[in-house]
Amino acid sequence: MIDVQAKMLLKAEASRFSLGYLWWLIEPMLWVAVFYLVFNVILESPRSGTEFLVFLSTGKLAFIWFSKAVSQASNSIVNSQGLVARINLPKSLFPMAVVQESLYRQAAVYSLLVAVLLIFDYPPAVGWLWMLPLIAVFYLMIVACALIGAYLVCMARDFSNLIPLGMTFLLFTSGVFWDVREIEDPEKLSMVLNINPIAFVLDAHRQILMYGQAPDLDHLSYIAIVSIAAIVAMLALMRRHSQLLALKVLT
Question: pTM for the complete prediction?
Answer without folding.
Answer: 0.89
